[in-house]
Amino acid sequence: MQGPIAATVITFFTAATTVAAQAQRTDAIIGLQLEPPHLDPTSAAAGAIDQVLYANVFEGLTRFGPDGSVQPGLAASWTISDDGLSYTFQLREGVTFHDGTAFEASDVVFSLDRARAEDSTNAQKALFAGIEDVEALDDTSVRIDLATPQGNFLFNLAWGDAVMVARESIEDIKNQPIGTGAFRFEQWRRGDQISLSRNADYWGEATSLEAATFKFISEPTAAYAAMLAGDIDAFYSYPAPENLAQFERDPRFTVLSGNTEGETILAINNQQSPFDDIRVRKAVSHAIDRQAIIDGAMFGYGTPIGSHFAPHNPDYVDLTANAAFDPALARELLAQAGYREGFSTTLKLPPPSYARRGGEIIAAQLREVGIEAEISFLEWAQWLEQVFRGYDYGLTIVSHTEPMDINIYARPDYYFQYDNPDFQALIETLAVESDPAARSALLAQAQTTIAEDFVNGYLFQLALTSVVDAKLQGIWKDAPTQAVDLTGVRWAD
């Protein structure tokens, strides 16, 4: 009887040990489709940087919560002058950067002066254009003076482009990011993964995770295989929507379906002939069947849009009827513009599946009205160089995942090169308006203006669908900003 009893004890002990080991797990591997081009969120437009670093490694004076609300960050509190021109921030005390240097008001001055400098490469430099002066009052308080009141100033400071950096570590920030966040950067194996570790000296609540790895898997089939094999614990913004129904049926996984700030657009180069003719841009918009793109490329996930504005926003205006699918009207408009036989252009597509799958469908739809779009597939670095910075394109598809970013249409040098002085004046008015009703009216006017100018082809609001191990909790369902915030992620007991 000794043998069976011993075997039973051993079996019980092994099972108990396994359960304990599972309960004690303190690491997580998160799959992402896109790898950052570098690791400085204050000098690039790539959302992949914020996905890894926002709230994890870098923090701003304010930050976005999971519901999109603006919350205190490195600023514990603030006061606003009666005229709305001065914001005085009280900084949290005892905060240090990951290299051990203290976070002080002088770092705020450095960060914001760098972001708004004449030679700044900050992708959202316009957010800081209204700042007249940043002054350290003492080590833990700083005053920011504005040229005019800004109703959205605290919101602007929550962007990833406004995170705090230090002069001491700025030189190598693209490769060795040093912030104040709950996680420290450990290693970047290019083409593979970025690893983080818990910051033992963090000023706030310690994270449940001791280590986190972001694994970059660009191919949807590889993402599917990695998730099923358990090689990753979650895939944020899962790139193969055709597999979601299978994951939903599998009790090992949870499928999170939420909203993003991602207006997915067929961007048009407004300064390139023939797109400098509104009739041609209008023809392109009427040639597009949005629902066919949502069904064919996104397997039904996505909400049609008619302007550059999120449908879940209270100030959203439904303008989809303005560019209803009407191939006959598209052909008529092209004929009016002198292109009865059509024309050829380029359609440059970045890596995400919404762009590449959607691009194939759009090219076929455009062909039906006489527009031949030559497709080329670009990696993100190529897209940023050729399209975003070089204006070398006719059409492209991209999802703008920054929150409340309709103001980009007031920037004539932005990559779709829309130059409308009346719209620019409208956005200037919006920037200083604080009355909610007046802001709503201005936002409605802004949406209508760019829709009626047919600046771009407005396709759909990108849905956020993530596949997560059923025991992993705290991954955001919605995406009020481009971030995979791991500070509240933990394994269930």
Tags for this entry?
493 residues; alpha+beta; D-Maltodextrin-Binding Protein, domain 2; Dipeptide-binding Protein, domain 1; Dipeptide-binding Protein, domain 3; 3 domains; eleven-stranded mixed β-sheet; 13 helices; 19 strands; globular
What does the secondary structure layout of this molecule look like, with pairings?
Blueprint: H1 2-23, E1 27-32, H2 47-53, E2 62-64, E3 70-72, E4 75-80, E5 86-91, H3 105-116, E6 131-138, E7 141-146, H4 153-156, E8 183-189, E9 193-198, E10 211-216, H5 220-229, E11 234-235, H6 244-249, E12 253-268, H7 278-286, H8 290-298, E13 303-304, H9 327-336, E14 343-349, H10 353-367, E15 371-377, H11 380-389, E16 395-400, H12 421-432, H13 436-452, E17 457-469, E18 472-473, E19 490-491
Parallel strand pairs: 1-10, 1-11, 14-15, 14-16
Antiparallel strand pairs: 2-3, 4-5, 5-7, 6-7, 8-9, 9-10, 11-17, 12-16, 12-17, 13-17, 18-19
Describe the structure.
It contains 13 helices and 19 strands. With 493 residues, the chain is an alpha+beta fold. The protein folds into 3 domains: 105 residues, Periplasmic binding protein-like II (D-Maltodextrin-Binding Protein, domain 2), CATH 3.40.190; 126 residues, Dipeptide-binding Protein, Domain 1 (Dipeptide-binding Protein, domain 1), CATH 3.90.76.10; 202 residues, Dipeptide-binding Protein, domain 3 (Roll). The strands form 4 sheets. Strands 1, 8, 9, 10, 11, 12, 13, 14, 15, 16 and 17 form an 11-stranded mixed β-sheet that branches. Strand 2 and strand 3 form a beta hairpin.
